[in-house]
Write a structure and sequence with these properties.
globular, 1 helix, alpha+beta
Length: 43
């Protein structure tokens, strides 16, 4: 995966968080897992 690909993914995840009303600092729906990626957070 190139740096450009990683940035594209970050932008898409940011847009998804905005639509869900999620905050990157205190995620309710989408959690960032360092070194792995992203996961949906169960309620």
């Amino acid at each position: 995966m190139t740096a450009r690909d990683e940035r594209v993914l970050e932008v898409h995840m940011g847009n998804l968080r905005k639509r869900l009303g999620d905050s990157p600092r205190s995620p309710r729906w989408v959690q960032t897992v360092r070194g792995v990626g992203y996961r949906l957070t169960p309620q």
